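Structure first, sequence second, as always.
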């Protein structure tokens, strides 16, 4: 039988798993997806680790063997286990990374959401995690805020692979693409190689429709005079938004600026479709995968969506279909006062808060398990250091072969 997930690879689109879990890794689940479905990457975030560590007993041996043992802080214990899982995923993906010459085979690890608006602390945290994991197929995740885009430039110049997350608007994506190229240009100007630096721009989809559709439904319920026009674009704004981002990406690849970098071996910063699980049960469960297929992109799938696409997904070059129609949808959303720009800004703030809340929740769970194991209660109040504050020595960054820590 034809494997639809492998067909995506043939269409030029990578498939990454939006999930990580210790038992899943230990039982060979990731290796099976790599071998049977052609999976080439993994993403993680605080919400994913919150769910993974809800089954705390799976992590007991790791908690007990964490550096410092009973003396280790909640933050140290949590981070040591996150790094262990990421390293395990990186090991499973290393054959993919080697086979593809660094073009894929990555696992992402996110900086603390508390630092989303702090450039210096984001850079230092990203560099620290880069050194602590110490695997070439790591991507450090930074948020698509203004501070995150600024940090991206410095990190890329220093040779760090970066996944920029929480992108919801074309404007924010353009700023990130510019920062990526600026980092490569600065690195090349110093005579350093740029051919093994990878980055993705994680553009979220279903969360946009969830917000826009809610506004549309409220107006439909109130018998808005523009009800017909509103109903016509329900469930279409996120896909249209993503298609226009991809159209701009294709234009960028043809530009003189990018071509100059490509001539030096630079890899494109691929668009990554995030939040691909549908939020509205009325929509097909593979909607945001089927509609966003195209070369030089990544689709990240939670397990349920991955299984659904394997079963009944549709593979065709949909990203380049009816771009004029996508423009009309976005123009209609603007004309109807749905204010996609404001929605995007709110979703960035909401996304940062969601990940911060998840981090707090998982730290509370780790604290409770720490007390059960060691009989020594410890507050999580100070688990998140102030922006720029020194981190525990146990996870201080190692110096990388690519150079010293970036200047901040």
């Amino acid at each position: 039988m034809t494997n639809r997930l492998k067909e995506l690879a043939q269409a030029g689109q990578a498939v990454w798993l939006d999930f990580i879990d210790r038992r899943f890794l230990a039982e060979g689940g990731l290796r099976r997806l790599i071998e049977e479905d052609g999976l080439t990457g993994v993403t993680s975030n605080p919400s994913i680790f919150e769910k993974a560590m809800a089954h705390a007993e799976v992590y007991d041996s790791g908690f007990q063997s964490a550096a410092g043992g009973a003396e280790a802080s909640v933050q140290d214990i949590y981070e040591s286990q996150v790094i262990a899982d990421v390293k395990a995923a990186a090991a499973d993906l290393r054959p993919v990374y080697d086979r593809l010459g660094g073009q894929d085979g990555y696992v992402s690890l996110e900086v603390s959401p508390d630092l989303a608006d702090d450039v210096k602390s984001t850079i230092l945290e990203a560099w620290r995690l880069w050194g602590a994991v110490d695997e070439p197929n790591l991507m450090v995740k930074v948020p698509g805020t203004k501070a995150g885009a600024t940090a991206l430039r410095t990190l890329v110049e220093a040779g760090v692979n970066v996944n920029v997350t929480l992108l919801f608007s074309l404007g924010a994506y353009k700023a990130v693409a510019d920062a990526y190229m600026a980092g490569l240009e600065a690195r090349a100007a110093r005579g350093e190689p740029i051919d093994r630096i990878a980055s993705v721009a994680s553009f979220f989809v279903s969360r946009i429709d969830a917000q826009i559709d809610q506004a549309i439904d409220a107006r439909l319920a109130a018998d808005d005079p523009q009800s017909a026009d509103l109903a016509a674009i329900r469930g279409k704004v996120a896909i249209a938004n993503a298609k226009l981002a991809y159209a701009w990406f294709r234009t960028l690849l043809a530009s003189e600026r990018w071509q100059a970098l490509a001539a030096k071996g630079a890899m494109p910063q691929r668009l990554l479709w995030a939040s691909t699980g549908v939020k509205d049960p009325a929509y097909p469960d593979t909607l945001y995968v089927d509609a966003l297929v195209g070369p030089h992109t990544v689709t990240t799938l939670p397990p349920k969506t991955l299984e659904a696409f394997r079963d009944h997904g549709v593979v065709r070059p949909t990203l380049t279909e009816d771009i004029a129609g996508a423009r009309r949808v976005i123009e209609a959303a603007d004309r109807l006062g749905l204010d996609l720009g404001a929605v995007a800004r709110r979703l960035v703030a909401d996304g940062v808060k969601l990940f911060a809340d998840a981090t707090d929740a998982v730290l509370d769970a780790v604290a409770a398990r720490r007390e059960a194991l060691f009989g020594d209660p410890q507050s999580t109040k100070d688990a998140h250091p102030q922006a720029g504050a020194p981190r525990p020595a146990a996870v201080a960054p190692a110096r990388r072969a690519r150079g010293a820590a970036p200047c901040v």
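Margin note: The radius of gyration is 21 Å.
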